[in-house]
Specification:
By secondary structure, the protein is α+β, with helices and mostly antiparallel strands. The chain has 2 domains: 52 residues; 95 residues, PH-domain like (Roll), CATH 2.30.29. The protein has 3 helices and 9 strands; from the N terminus they run βααββββββββα. The protein has a 5-stranded mixed beta sheet with strand order 5-8-9-7-6, with helices on one face. A 4-stranded antiparallel beta sheet has the order 1-2-3-4, covered by helices on one side. It is elongated, with a radius of gyration of 20 Å.
Length: 168
């Protein structure tokens, strides 16, 4: 963890990694089967197709295997490998634990969906609780991400973004 980091979490996503690794393995199996035994049908697929698809899914598996959350004095950064989303404190209007059913997002990983008339960007892992950030500006007005410690993350973000607790 960096010296200026207020919070950092790395979550390994076994389910996402397993699914993408399995698809990659199937592509490589099909390539080697076709090279060593022959095509399954009368019209063989190009060997290059199986190679490219196998490498593509392997790359996706490596990229989406870990979700990183880093909270610094300047911003919140959440990312899967090459895909990262950074939000500065002055763009956070509200922060709360996400109560939306996971099925509404249509899966795990990086997702875009519309909930309650607002576009929502979601970085999620299988079965993990999530935090929702309501944003003041940007293409997405809400950003959701999985974390193992939603109460702690919510508290840190609310304090640093200056979000006031509303009494019910």
């Amino acid at each position: 963890m960096r010296a200026d980091t207020l919070y950092e979490e790395r979550s390994f996503s076994l389910a996402i990694t397993g699914i993408l690794a399995a698809v990659s393995a199937i592509m490589f199996f099909m390539l080697f089967y076709q090279l060593l035994v022959g095509p399954l049908g009368s019209e063989p697929a190009p060997n290059l197709l199986f190679l490219i698809m196998g490498l593509l899914f392997l790359g996706f598996g490596l990229n989406f295997s870990r979700l990183l959350i880093r909270i610094t004095p300047g911003m919140v950064t959440v990312g899967y490998g090459l895909f990262r989303h950074r939000i500065t404190w002055n763009n956070i209007e509200d922060c709360r634990i996400d109560e939306t059913l996971a099925v509404k997002y249509g899966g795990w990983g990086v997702r875009v969906t519309k909930v309650g008339g607002k576009w929502r960007l979601v970085y999620s892992v299988v079965g993990g609780p999530r935090v929702l950030l309501a944003l003041r500006a940007g293409r997405f007005r809400e950003f959701v991400f999985s974390t193992r410690k939603p109460e702690e993350v919510t508290k840190i973000i609310r304090q640093n973004a200056g979000v006031k607790d509303v009494a019910l």
